[in-house]
Specification:
The chain is α/β, with parallel strands linked by helices. It has one domain: P-loop containing nucleotide triphosphate hydrolases (Rossmann fold), CATH 3.40.50.300. Bound molecules: adenosine-5'-triphosphate. Adenosine-5'-triphosphate binds next to helix 1, helix 3 and helix 4.
């Protein structure tokens, strides 16, 4: 019985790896759909106005998925509730949210995490998988995927946003201590395009799960 959560920057390949893991481990995948997210395009158009609303939207969705995933006991989630705060604080530092919004958000998140901690069955995921990609790789993937509002041509200021976001992930991952964690080198292993890389990545994750299982017994 395992609950896995994926983490990583925009375009890191979380959704693809989620799908692969769900298939490999015969578990259910939880995705955060982008195309029916009404707030996301608004945010990219006017981050100052919509950063807070977007975070509340995501927080609500992720809370729902992680609650369901933990109570089902056997799942993979494509992005964790634990990293939204990283994105929001970055947005706040860029002046897209004010102090009160940050306070309200942090408080709400804390409350929700406590709620998760008081669940009667599983409280935390078994493993967090961080797909780490370099900044160049991140830009390459965003371009390749081609979601319009994420493109630098659409808004050149996204360059700095993406760069800062990517660099903050390293510190975030180092500090993350809610559950066991593993980092996957997304530059070295292109698990979407390369079958051999996919096999190697799945093996790394399965080996880590075995190790955790051993520690728990
Ligand atoms: N907490 C958040 N704050 C701001 N934007 C967010 C947040 N979470 C997700 N996003 C935005 O939502 C979109 C989808 O993000 P996400 O990284 O979850 O999926 P993705 O880009 O499809 O990643 P992957 O390729 O790794 O599956 C991106 O445009 C990202 O900027």
């Amino acid at each position: 019985m395992t609950v896995l959560v994926l983490a990583g920057t925009i375009g890191a390949g979380k959704s693809s790896l989620t799908e692969m893991l769900a298939e490999e481990l015969e578990t259910q995948a939880f995705y955060e759909s982008v195309h029916d997210n009404k707030v996301l395009p608004l945010f990219y158009e006017n981050p100052q106005k919509y950063a807070f609303l977007l975070q509340i939207y995501f927080l609500n969705k992720r809370f729902d998925s992680i609650k369901r995933a933990l109570s089902d006991n056997n799942n993979v989630l494509d992005r964790s509730i634990y990293e939204d705060s990283l994105l929001f604080h970055l947005n706040a530092d860029l002046g897209r949210a004010d102090e009160t919004e940050v306070e309200v958000y942090d408080d709400l998140l804390k409350n929700m995490l406590e709620e998760i901690d008081s669940l009667s069955f599983k409280k935390r995921p078994d493993l967090l998988i961080h797909v780490k990609v370099s900044f160049d790789k991140m830009l390459e993937r965003i371009k390749k995927r081609g979601r319009q509002f994420e493109q630098l041509e659409y808004d050149p200021s996204l360059y700095d946003y993406y760069k800062e976001l990517n660099s903050r992930y390293d510190t975030w991952f180092e500090a993350f201590d809610i559950c066991p964690k593993i980092q996957i080198d997304g530059d070295k292993y292109d698990f979407v395009e390369n079958e051999q890389s996919k096999i190697q990545v799945l093996q790394q994750i399965k080996a880590k799960l075995k190790e955790i299982e051993g520690e728990n017994n």
